[in-house]
């Protein structure tokens, strides 16, 4: 694949946030774009996007992407006064809004009543449709990574495995960050007591993050393998056998991280 083709995939991919150093699949655009199997074209026809969303009962699109610019031009006063809901996923709580910011159309993505997680300005009709479809794909359609590919999923959630399939990429990342924060505080406080250091920050400075993570892996593997305790530590990692990116909420039941198996370099809760 040529450099021009890689850049084209980077620009059009639904997983590539504007201005981001890492894409949502953990790659380095445009360098990794030529090898990525998770590519989703954010510019594909509006009918295809609607087909993807039509089978998801919790996803509602109130204004189709190809009608948004016309809707905006006819309702500028309303968009200046309020955030207009254009699409939402009632199960995940994510919603896409449009508003007028000093004469420029802006899309905002919010979860529930929280402040916007993402905002993007659009300048014309073509940019409006393309951006809207990208946001619909990125935030409203739940998918999972199976054998290195993003697969749209939906329906009722009845058990843990189905729960993983119902999560959007953003939900997965939120789940990972929250759990990693809790584990990070816990392991550093534990080591501070064991090593007789004043606090967790001192442990981090004196021994380094690699050491701390290795100890954490050993402890969680011990609890899983020797005591059959299910350890919740959601993460993305690369499978050694297939080279595919996998998302797992209980990875220690199937994979080894501290010695052999998947190395720490190939298995991280989230790419840095």
Essential attributes:
272 residues, alpha+beta, 5-stranded antiparallel β-sheet, 3-stranded antiparallel β-sheet, 10 strands, 18% strand, elongated
Shape summary: elongated
SS-based class: alpha+beta
What fraction of residues sit in β-strands?
15-25%
Mean pLDDT comes to: 74
Number of helices: 9
- Radius of gyration from the CA trace? 21 Å
Helix % is 25-40%
The SSE order reads: HHEHHEEEEHEEHHHHEEE
Count of distinct structural domains: 3
> What does the main sheet amount to?
5 strands, antiparallel
Sequence stretches where pLDDT stays below 50 over 5 or more residues: 44-49, 145-150, 154-165, 260-267
In what order do the strands lie side by side in the largest sheet?
Answer: 1-2-3-4-5
Distance between the termini: 26 Å
The strand count comes to 10
Structure, explained:
With 272 residues, the protein is an alpha+beta fold. The strands form 3 sheets. The chain has a 5-stranded antiparallel sheet. Strands 9-8-10 form a 3-stranded antiparallel sheet, covered by helices on one side. A two-stranded antiparallel ribbon has the order 6-7. A hairpin with a 2-residue loop joins strand 6 and strand 7. It contains 9 helices and 10 strands. It is elongated.
């Amino acid at each position: 694949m040529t450099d021009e083709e890689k850049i084209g995939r980077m620009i059009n991919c639904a997983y590539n946030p504007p201005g981001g150093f890492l894409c949502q699949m953990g790659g380095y655009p445009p360098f990794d774009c030529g090898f990525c199997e998770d590519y989703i074209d954010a510019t594909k026809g509006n009918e295809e996007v609607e087909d993807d969303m039509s089978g998801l009962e919790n996803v509602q699109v109130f204004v189709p992407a190809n009608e948004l610019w016309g809707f905006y031009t006819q309702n500028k006063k309303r968009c200046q006064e309020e955030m207009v809901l254009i699409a939402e996923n009632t199960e995940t709580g994510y919603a896409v809004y449009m508003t007028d910011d000093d004469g420029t159309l802006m899309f905002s993505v919010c979860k529930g009543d929280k402040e916007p997680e993402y905002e993007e300005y659009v300048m014309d009709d073509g940019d409006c449709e393309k951006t809207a479809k990208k946001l619909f794909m990125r935030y409203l359609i739940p998918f999972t990574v199976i054998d290195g590919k993003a697969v749209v999923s939906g329906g009722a959630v009845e058990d843990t495995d189905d729960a993983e399939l119902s999560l959007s990429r953003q939900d997965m990342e939120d789940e990972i960050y929250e759990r990693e924060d809790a584990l990070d505080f816990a392991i550093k406080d534990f080591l501070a007591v064991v090593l007789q250091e004043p606090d967790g920050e001192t442990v981090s400075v004196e021994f380094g993050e690699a050491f701390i993570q290795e100890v954490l892996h050993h402890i969680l593997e011990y609890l899983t393998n020797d005591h059959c305790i299910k350890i919740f530590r959601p993460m993305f990692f690369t499978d050694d056998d297939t080279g595919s990116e996998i998302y797992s909420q209980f990875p220690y039941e199937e994979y080894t991280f501290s010695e052999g198996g998947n190395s720490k370099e190939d298995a991280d809760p989230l790419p840095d």
